[in-house]
Amino acid sequence: MSLELDSRQRAMLEAMGVQVWWPETPPAELPAEPAHAAPVATAAPVRQATEPARAAAPTQRTERPTGIASMSWPQLQAAVAGCEACALCRTRTQTVFGVGPQPGDTPPQVDWLIVGEAPGENEDLQGEPFVGQAGKLLDNMLKAVGLSRHGNAPLKGAFIANVLKCRPPGNRNPSPEEVAQCLPYLQRQVALLQPKIIVAAGRFAVQALLQETVPDVHAQPLGKLRGRVHRYQGVPVVVTYHPAYLLRALPEKAKTWADLCLALEALDAP
Ligand code: URA
Question: Of 167, 170, 210, 244, which is most buried, counting CB atoms within 10 Å of its CB?
Answer without folding.
Answer: 167
